[in-house]
Amino acid sequence: MNDLRDDLSRAGRQAPELPPDAFDRLRRRRARRARRGRVTAATLSLAVAAVAIGGVLLAFRPHDASSGKGRIRSAAGTDLSVGANQFAYEKTISYTYGPSGDGRGWPLYVDRFTEQSWYRADGAGRDATVDANDFFTPADRQTFIQQMGHTPPDIAPSDKTYAAGDYPTDTGDISYLSTDPATLLTQLQDRSAPTGRSPEPSMSDSPGQPLPAQLAVWFAIQDLINRPNATPALKAALFEVAKQLPGIDVVQNSIDPVGRPGILLRLQVQGTHEEYWFDPSSEQLLAWRTTIETDAFPQYPKGTVDGIEIVTASGVTDSTDDAASLAKSFVPAPVTSPPTMPDPRS
Q1: Based on the structure, what is the number of domains in the chain?
Q2: Residue 38 domain-assigned?
Q3: Residue 68, domain extent
Q4: Lowest CB count within 10 Å: 2, 25, 63, 207, which one?
Q5: Does residue 203 lie within any of the structural domains?
Q6: How far is CA 206 from CA 55, 162, 213, 340, in A?
Q7: Residue 346 lies in a domain
Q8: 306-344 pLDDT, tens per residue?
Q9: H/E/C letters for each residue in 189-224?
């Protein structure tokens, strides 16, 4: 594995410089992703230099992987398969400051965005969202109405059902991605390259941060890790890739923001401290949290937690009905509520 880290590090040092407005764009994209309930920071990830890694990737291969598509179980043995007529289900609640942007006197509230997704392999499914704005003061609510021109919430509730092939995604076809971590790593590098399926602008590394080659893969993982059209087996493989990347600190025995045991992956990325918790058995995402570690934004002091997302349920169901129970459950229910995000202006 040290050989793989060395290869990625050497490749990373070949990447070009960071655009001056990169961090600002990253933060804006993070705010939008939280309001959609999906992690899409990969739209600001990096171009990857070519790496000749050859047989070193075999170090990634799990005991139950085969050549070709890969595995359907987590490394701990959890069955992650989804039947042809079943739906992968996930419910998330994300918290971020709002409105997103730079309006006078902002932020005005904590945005609490709940999303449920049901996705079947043929592209059928359902997506239901509810937005709630927890204003810091009654005056902030009035300011929102005056500045935005409508009453809260910021985003209207939505509940849409989709026939086969109609579920909306912006990832393109990801069914080709392998669930074998070794193969998947190469695919993620190719996907993020300038001529790849999801090309990314490039940026340079900074002291104490992962190098660009690793960041490209990390941001690609962020983009895919809780997408409805990413299968549970693919998400587990993404976790396996992520925990091996240089610059990622792995904490085996951690507790997520709502009291559940998990494996924590954490790193510094362009002025933020990012934390991702995964279930030890299913290797599915439990939660993520971002903390600002720069003085670039006066309204968000250094140390401000500016985003939390909690996966409250994840598994497999036989229908998109609200009353349908999970045929398989991949994550435990939250034990506590997440910590309150205070008014950063005070």
Answers
A1: 1
A2: yes
A3: 2-329
A4: 207
A5: yes
A6: 29, 44, 13, 31
A7: no
A8: 999 999 999 999 999 998 899 999 999 999 999 999 999
A9: HHHHCCCCCCCCCCCCCCCCCCCHHHHHHHHHHHHH
